[in-house]
Amino acid sequence: MIQIINSILFNGFPFLALNLTGVGTAALLISATGVLIGLFLGVAAKKLEVVADEKEQLVRELLPGNNCGACGYPGCDNLAQAIAAGKAPVNACPVANSKAHSQIAEVMGTNAEETEKQVAFVKCAGTCDKTKVKYNYYGIPDCKKAAFTPGRGPKQCGYGCTGFGSCVKVCQFDAIHVIDGVAVVDKEKCTSCGLCIKECPNHLIELVPYNTQHFVRCSSKDKGKDVKAGCSIGCIGCMMCVRACEYDAVKVENNLARIDYSKCTNCGKCAQKCPTRVILSDWKEKSLGA
């Protein structure tokens, strides 16, 4: 029966036989091409194979894996590659602790430079009860957007924290929150990655030594009378802190007191003499938003 059908198809419809022959030829060509491409890719993979750097892999395992970019590289993989290649220091990751830095240094056969732990600090004490407001702000709740409005935000002091929390949004460690209109850093959670510093349009955040106890909670460069007109706790540049310091650790520049932490001994005399109490002498007090 099958022979009869084939005879009818091939003898009665010769074009069908030709089509079937063409399909078979095409299938053979495609199969042969696939085999050749497979062989080519296999040879290419062997020739172009990148041998993994053992040091790079070990360094990568020691990095925290946050991929925050605070080190200046796109992510931990890129930083590990740079460290392994000698293009970045072993302590380039600000999020990793000193133990991790030492372990990375051991992998690289070097010594990690010991540095004092630092944490972010917001140089503003203008909470809602201490600073005046010029106008009601109805724009996008973002510090950078508010910085383009008249007076750099609704608060009377254009130097201070707007309180919209752009720094909070970029912090991956839940280390910073807005309390009573001002950003406040939890020093125990802060990893000194520096992302909040880059985000703040008023440049209010800086890194300070973890163990220091005294900070100037103000960034205003206005004269004393103008500061008092907008904020009851701002620095008025009175120089009393400078005269009180026996270690030449406090200076007043552009009407604003600054502490040199390399000289500061945490004696507390500057805070005691400050008439506006803008110099913080207790981190716990700051954490509570005082």
What keywords describe this structure?
290 residues; alpha+beta
Short synopsis of the structure:
The chain is an alpha+beta fold and 290 residues long. Helix content is 38%, strand content 10%.
Protein architecture, described:
The chain has helices spanning 2-12, 14-48, 54-62, 76-84, 98-108, 143-146, 166-170, 195-199, 224-230, 240-244, 269-273, 283-287, and strands spanning 118-122, 176-179, 182-185, 205-209, 215-216, 250-253, 256-259, 279-280. It has 12 helices and 8 strands. It has a two-stranded antiparallel sheet. Strands 2-3 form a two-stranded antiparallel sheet. The termini are far apart. With 290 residues, the chain is an alpha+beta fold. It is elongated.
Topology record:
Layout: H1 2-12, H2 14-48, H3 54-62, H4 76-84, H5 98-108, E1 118-122, H6 143-146, H7 166-170, E2 176-179, E3 182-185, H8 195-199, E4 205-209, E5 215-216, H9 224-230, H10 240-244, E6 250-253, E7 256-259, H11 269-273, E8 279-280, H12 283-287
Antiparallel strand pairs: 1-4, 2-3, 5-8, 6-7
Terminus-to-terminus distance: 100 Å
Topology pattern, helix = H, strand = E: HHHHHEHHEEHEEHHEEHEH
Number of helices: 12
Percent helix range: 25-40%
The coarse overall form would be elongated
